[in-house]
Amino acid sequence: xxxxxxxxxxxxxxxxxxxxxxxxxxxxxxxxxxxxxxxxxxxxxxxxxxxxxxxxxxxxxxxxxxxxxxxxxxxxxxxxxxxxxxxxxxxxxxxxxxxxxxxxxxxxxxxxxxxxxxxxxxxxxxxxxxxxxxxxxxxxxxxxxxxxxxxxxxxxxxxxxxxxxxxxxxxxxxxxxxxxxxxxxxxxxxxxxxxxxxxxxxxxxxxxxxxxxxxxx
Length: 217
Prior knowledge:
- By secondary structure, the protein is of the alpha/beta class.
- The chain has a single domain (36-213), classed as TIM Barrel (Alpha-Beta Barrel), CATH 3.20.20.
- Helices cover 17% and strands 26% of the residues.
- It is built from four helices and 14 strands.
- It starts with a strand and ends with a strand.
- Residues 1-18 and 21-26 have low confidence and may be disordered.
C-alpha cells in the first residue's frame, strides 16, 4: 500500500496527514477526475438532536453524513438489517446521507451501508485494552475494513503514529468524532477520494484505502 502526503480541503491544511492509496480500481477513473469528500464515519446524529447535528456538519464543510447511533442488543457478529440500521434520510443536508449503526453489545463496531456496499469499522478498541493482535483477530472474525485510532477525536497513545498503526493493524486506521452532541462535531474525520459523491463511491474508496486522516499525526 502506497502512502503520500497532501494539503488542502476547503482551505484547511491537512499537514502531516497520510493518504492511504490502494492501486485497485485506479485505472477506471483518471486521478484528476477524482474529488475529495470530507466525512465523519462515527456520529450519533439522532442522539445529538438530528437536524442541528446535520446543520453543523454542513457549516463545517462536510460532504456526506453517516448516522451511527447505538444498538445495544446486537453484538459485533450479529445480523444487521433495515430495521437495525438507522435511516436519517429525512434530515436536510446538501450531500448524501449513509445509513449506519453502532453495534454496542460488548465491543463497539460501526456498520455503514450504501445501496450496494457495506463497511465495518472497529471503534475505540483501546477502551477494551485490545492489543494489535486482538484487533486483527476481531477484524478477521467480523470482516472489518477500518479501525479507529482515536477515542472521541483524541489520539490513542498506544498508536502514536499512523505509520505504526498501518504496520500493526490489518484494518486501516481512521479518525472520527464519535460526536454525541453538536459541539462535538468536527473534532475528527477522514477525507476520501471519490469519482462521484455517492454512498457507493464513498464506501468503495474506503475499502480501497483512498482516504486521508484529518489531523496532524
